Amino acid sequence: MTEPLIIGAMVRTLGAYPSGWRQPGAHRDPSADADILRHIAREGEDAGLDYLFFGDWLATGPDLEFRDPYLLARIDPVSAVLFLAGVTSRIGLIATVNTTYADPYATARSLASLDVLTGGRAGVNLVTGAEPRAAGNHGRDAHADNETRYDRAEEFVAALRRLWDSWSEDAWIADAERGVLIDPDGLRGADLQGAHVRVSGPLNVARPPQGQIPIVHAGTSPRSRALAATEADLALIAAPNIADAIATRRDLREIAAAAGRSPETLKVIAPVLPVVADSDAEAHRIVERLLALVPLAEGHQPARTAFPPNRSVAALADALGVAADDPLRAADFDQVVSADDASRLGDAGAALLDRLGRIAGVRVAGRGAGGALTWRHLVAAHAAPAAFVVGDASTIADHFETWRDEGAADGFNVLSAFQPAQFEAFTRLAAPELRRRGLLGRADDGARPTLRGRLGVGVRDGAASSLAAR
Questions:
Q1: How far apart are CA 352 and CA 372, in angstroms?
Q2: Among candidate residues 45, 88, 48, 42, the one with its CA nearest the CA of residue 440
Q3: Rounded distance between C-alpha atoms, residue 291 and residue 293, angstroms
């Protein structure tokens, strides 16, 4: 019998698409995140999702308003999962920690505490950071280079594993009659003296129910892939198509096998942004509205601080290689794209036109059914791309099933364009269809009580790290 997919929700309270917060009824106030987080957690748990995933970004600035609004102001991920521990009972809770700036002992302690408090539902996503502004927020003159960051990340993982392994499973005796509380031989120090991380231990938290808390990692550099393949339980990838995903999954598993690890214990997770509705046509209309709400270079927008330079027809023409003297560069945003216009956009333009037909149901005038495609659609889709999968429950499930059957992914991180309506559409429409096809575990499945059990990654020894024995 084929195992179900691993399906989790990547939580972004202001939505995962830049214009999502502008949708009618969308959550748009970070100071009220507590209510929407509770709602998301209950929806996800009732739907039988495997985990809630919280990313992080260690700086903010006005440029994020247009690129990634959800990063402007957000709850610290460890605080978020601790908050949701009390309103959930089954779903996994994964928090992101930046190894470049975090303290390994504090990280091991907070995640072990979460694991104890939730009965084994904690997970951690380790990142090395891509935001140079974070350095100034942590007393550094500059963001460390890639090699230095990954040298520290490897030592950070070794420290976590040693600290989580501080207590043997039978170290806590609690024999009141004899007056023996612990077996001191079952308490171990970490004793890690690396070039970047030094920690003595032991950890002053009880042994995590999972033993070793599941580790998640994402990245595209050779060092990042090596860390994911050798140390992570979940490797997050960002493949633009199924062929690239198949190749990436295969490469990661080959690296794992070469390191002496069973490749089946590494689960590869792809991102997906499903726009779900009762019909494909209705889902297309939602995407069309999202595109229409992307701020473009019109009116007062270009004068705003850090407004993106790529949100004009001229910028799109540059990207597609349109001739400098072509009059279409002066087209109005709401002007319909004609067949003659489309013929001058080259292969990249043709691919963009095809994608807009599939995700938004808009097409070049005179080319089949659907609404009229405008320059606004083209500029928005190019300037704010997303991993959209659009349609009714069956269409969404088809995508998930195809990727599983073709060996492209072991699971998905589900993003929602806006909250709460699109997450509700996924959990109430798509999730039941995924469960019917055996792609999603049952909502009340009690056979896998821990996150590690839900992920199907097996037991991991604290000494299993390639660095732990150094």
A1: 15
A2: 48
A3: 5
Q: What is the DSSP string of 67-132?
A: H-GGGSS---HHHHHHHHHTT-SSSEEEEEEETTTS-HHHHHHHHHHHHHHHTS-EEEEEE----T
Lookup result for tokens 């039941």: 432
DSSP secondary structure code for residue 406 in this structure:
T
Question: Are the C-beta atoms of 273 and 387 separated by less than 8 Å?
Answer: yes
Distances (CA, A) of 167 to 113, 189, 207: 14, 9, 5
Classify the C-alpha dihedral 378-348-411-221 as positive or negative.
negative
Query: Would residue 258 be called left, alpha or beta, if left means φ above 0 and alpha means ψ between -120 and 50 degrees?
Result: alpha
- pLDDT tens across 411-455, in order? 999 999 999 999 999 999 999 999 999 999 855 555 568 999 999
For residue 202, whether the previous peptide bond is cis, meaning omega lies within 30 degrees of 0, is yes
Q: How far apart are CA 229 and CA 250, in angstroms?
A: 11
Beta-carbon contacts of residue 130 (< 8 Å; ≥ 6 apart) = none
List, in order, residues 6 or more apart from 232 with CB less than 8 Å away: 126, 215, 216, 217, 266
Mind listing the pLDDT tens digit for each residue in 8-42? 999 999 999 999 999 999 999 999 999 999 999 99
CA distance 24 to 27: 9
Question: Nearest CA to 7 among 267, 329, 387?
Answer: 267
pLDDT tens digits along 86-129:
999 999 999 999 999 999 999 999 999 999 999 999 999 999 98
Pairing of strands 92-98, 51-54: parallel
